Amino acid sequence: MKRRKQKKNPDKNQSYSKNKADIRLPFIEHIRELRRRLFYIALSVLGVAFAAYAVQQRIVHILLAPAKGQHFIYTSPGGGIDFLFRVCIYTGIVVSIPLIIYQLLQYISPLFKDESTTRTIAIGSMISGVFAVLGVVFGYYVGMPAVLHFLFHQFTSQQIQPLITIQSYISFVTLYMLGSSLLLQVPWFWYLLTG
Questions:
Q1: N or C: which end of the chain has fewer CB within 10 A?
Q2: Region 109-113: what's the mean pLDDT?
């Protein structure tokens, strides 16, 4: 019994490959868009960090003010440079929060239900920037002095004194203030995603 050779249908294979390409294309486009938006965010953070280096002493003075005279140390030869690097990078992140929110909203804009997406994103980014500033101000003037007073004085005695590195202090302060600014973003973000 002879087997019949089945002719391959070129149209069927081409349509399959086209469908396969159509499925992959949107995912690749999403990845490219995400990469582009992350590039903008990194560019903003680095740009602000370089600008912060020009006014580093003023920023350091502002960040050390809540400690109220507490002395700090660094324990390695590169500790001072590491400290300034952290100050500049953290400043870049905090100042770039409105742009980060804007890029995130632009990326998820297809999820919004209304047609005025561009207006919603612009207003959302401005309100997010205001909330970020309010969070940093609240963290700096209200939360930070109370937290540092508690941590510096609650666990000390005649024999126990805090010996804190400047890197750990700056990491704590900047993460605390970043957390304060992001805390006020949560209700606003929730409203944008569900409204």
A1: N
A2: 69
Report which secondary-structure segment, H or E, holds 164.
strand 164-165
One-letter amino acid at 146 equals A
Identify whether the C-beta of residue 62 lies closer than 8 Å to the C-beta of residue 139: no
Give the model confidence (pLDDT) of 24-70 as tens digits: 457 788 888 899 999 999 999 999 999 999 999 999 898 888 888 78
Neighbours of 89 (CB within 10 A): 16
- The string of DSSP codes covering 36-102 is HHHHHHHHHHHHHHHHHHHTHHHHHHHHHGGGTT--EE--STTHHHHHHHHHHHHHHHHHTHHHHHH
What pTM was estimated for this model as a whole?
Answer: 0.71
Closest CA to 162 of 100, 73, 80, 97: 73
- Round to whole Å and give the CA distance between 109 and 193: 10
Q: Mean pLDDT in the chain?
A: 79
- Quick count: other Cβ atoms within 10 Å of Cβ 136? 19
SS3 133: helix
pLDDT band at 113 (very low <50, low <70, confident <90, very high): low
d(CA 126, CA 150): 35
